[in-house]
């Protein structure tokens, strides 16, 4: 015969309900504690823009893992090595943060600064003449020692000379023009031409920094005509 409690439930069922409730509470607590920080949400204005049109915004100083290089990203081995090293260091840092700081986060997207001595070489896609700095953002709550330790730990596990080129550095862009490009990287030329020759001069502005791209899509998984890329150009008053 089952015994009943004051609410009319059997004591056996009450124990089961209590255990289930406690389990749910612990699960919810765990989810809350390990909620991932996502800089794309916290700094959402930096990762969005109209397609085919331009916006002006102010970008705060941000820190990145960076690697510098030169040459066609499609054929230059050092480019691939740089990107692989950046991801390895960034994921090592992510797991270090999760284990040591109890702060988990989404590794931010790959970004790149691109330039050429002759700006026309960039617009015309003469990639062998390009220079670049590839980079992945480091969250603000990560200190320098933790970031450098992550680079060393990742380097110890892989034979990649690009680890010796990674640096932790700040980027200060301030006022920028930004647009969202959907399509292949090689189709960026027309929208960049409009940005440089029409929009920026029409706002009494001038170029003041290096062309910046943020890769919101993974080209290994997304068709080239559907790639989403933020195109950003730092500017200053022209007078």
Describe the protein.
By secondary structure, this protein is of the alpha+beta class. The protein has two domains: 8-36; 39-237, Multidrug-efflux Transporter 1 Regulator Bmrr, Chain A, CATH 3.20.80.10. Helix content is 35%, strand content 25%.
The class by helix and strand makeup works out as alpha+beta
Average of per-residue pLDDT values: 88
Order of helices and strands: HHEEHEHEHEEHEEE
Sheet of most strands: 9 strands, antiparallel
Distance between the termini: 91 Å
The best one-word shape is globular
Radius of gyration: 24 Å
Helix content: 25-40%
Return residue spans where pLDDT drops below 50 for at least 5 consecutive residues: 1-11, 27-32
In the CATH hierarchy, the architecture of the largest domain is: Alpha-Beta Barrel
> How large is the count of helical segments?
6
Number of strands: 9
Count of distinct structural domains: 2
CATH superfamily of the largest domain, please? Regulatory factor, effector binding domain
| Assigned CATH class of the largest domain | Alpha Beta
What is the CATH topology of the largest domain?
Multidrug-efflux Transporter 1 Regulator Bmrr, Chain A
